[in-house]
Design brief:
alpha/beta; Rossmann fold; Nucleotidyltransferase, domain 5; 2 domains; 8-stranded mixed sheet; 14 helices; globular
């Protein structure tokens, strides 16, 4: 290959992300800092400088749509002098040295299985399922000792915070935090206007990179903070003398989530959690059998009773054939179910090890945000947190129904002071 000269205009504050010699890097950046442009510049430079003739690099956003909206135009424009073709349908750019840069969404991680990567950027990593990195992306780097950059804005102390915290102590990692008050990238009057228009938590999270600010729009964040403060997120051992109930959200072509709970007096103890993608009911039946639990009941959403067009049978019937007898949770509006969760959470204890991933999902479960109107919609955001939160909602609805049934006056014949009395 002949020598190819590229001119890249880097923002001084973002140059460490693009030019770092560390294999792994984490960058916490305020809004409008230009992190996506810097990420694309990094991918192009690394793909062009890779000695392999078939180098592969990837930009991953929380969803495929986000990847296209945020990075595709930048990738085409910034690579124009060194590209041979931009594949619009595949969101892939081919470069003159044989390298390719592709865009992906973490909402469909199976599209990443089986590929290899020399470099990857995970943008808005705080919005991705924690398993995406260790289970899918990290193995794709192993064959070629590929490198990775995590970038984003905080969303509480989730997996993004863990990566940043660990990176500060690991010599193989670089860690950068770019606060709006320190970078000088945004005018002071613009920051002041943003501060006036936002809550203190919103401003601290979006512009000052605070991991301690409440997750904006979170349904259960404050209640889980209370549980943490009160010591209800800790080791919660299984009580062999007590039966276990399970709460389910059954995905069709995506994740199925299962909570394992025990009721001890007025407490609801969450002792275990399981989630998997791309498996049928026989897989989950084996999971239940492998656990050392005696089950009292299994609670599933109402759509489990819907018959499938192909087989003519419902998953309720198929589960029964596998020895799982489901109870169908009341079909309440989502808002009512969220209200039931909020009522139940103060009664809940969580095992901090077995339920760690599930707790993170509950913390991140939040209202959908309309980017165009800049307002929260009156519905939950559908992302990697949804299956876990929906399964938990099934348990809360069943818990509420049971409490109401216990409080309700008995109907029908009952023993009164002077014999049988109909009420």
């Amino acid at each position: 290959m002949p020598t190819i000269r590229m001119e890249v205009a880097l923002r001084r504050q973002l140059a460490p992300l693009v030019l770092t010699d560390r294999r792994f890097a984490v960058a916490v950046a305020h809004r409008r800092a230009g992190k996506t442009v810097a990420a694309v510049q990094r991918l192009i430079l690394r793909a062009m400088s890779c000695p392999r003739p078939d180098a592969r690099a990837a930009y991953i956003a929380p969803t495929y749509g986000q990847a296209k909206r945020a990075a595709w135009d930048y990738l085409k424009r910034l690579s124009a002098s060194v590209q041979t073709k931009a594949h619009e349908t595949e969101l892939t750019v081919s470069l003159v040295n044989g390298a390719r840069i592709s865009l992906y969404g973490a909402d469909n991680p199976d599209t990443l299985r089986g590929i290899y990567l020399d470099d990857v950027v995970l943008d808005e990593y705080a919005d991705m399922a924690p398993r995406v990195w260790p289970e899918i992306v990290r193995p794709a780097l192993s064959d070629r000792r590929g490198s990775a950059l995590f970038i984003g804005t905080p969303k509480g102390r989730n997996d993004f915070w863990l990566r940043y915290d660990a990176a500060q102590r690991d010599p193989e990692w670089a860690a950068v935090m770019l606060k709006a008050s320190e970078t000088g990238l945004l005018p002071a009057d613009e920051l002041e206007a943003a501060r006036k228009a936002m809550t203190p938590d919103q401003y601290a999270q979006e512009y000052e990179c605070s991991f301690d600010a409440a997750v904006i729009g979170s349904y259960y964040g404050k209640l889980l903070d209370e549980a943490q403060t009160e010591g209800r997120i800790t080791r919660v051992p299984h009580e062999p003398a007590k039966q276990v109930e399970t709460w389910w959200d059954l995905g069709v072509g995506d994740s199925t989530a299962i909570w394992f709970a025990q009721r001890v007096r007025d407490e609801v103890r969450l002792i275990d959690y399981y989630e998997m993608t791309g498996e049928g009911l026989p897989h989950y039946a084996k999971v239940l059998q492998a656990k050392p639990y005696i089950y009292s009941r299994h609670v599933a959403p109402h759509d489990i009773a819907v018959r499938e067009l192909g087989s003519g049978r419902s998953r309720l019937e198929m589960a029964a054939g596998l020895g799982i007898s489901f109870e169908v949770a009341p079909n309440l509006p989502v808002d009512d179910g969220i209200g039931a969760v909020r009522l139940m959470l103060p009664k809940c204890w969580f095992d901090d090890e077995k339920c760690a991933a599930a707790l993170e999902a509950l913390r991140q479960y939040r209202k959908d945000y309309d980017e165009r109107l800049k307002v929260f919609r009156d519905r939950p955001r559908h992302d990697w947190t949804s299956h876990c939160a929906d399964a938990f909602r099934m348990g809360a609805v069943a818990w509420q129904e049971q409490r109401e049934r216990m409080k309700a006056p008995l109907r029908g014949p009952m023993r009164g002071p002077s014999g049988w009395m109909g009420l």
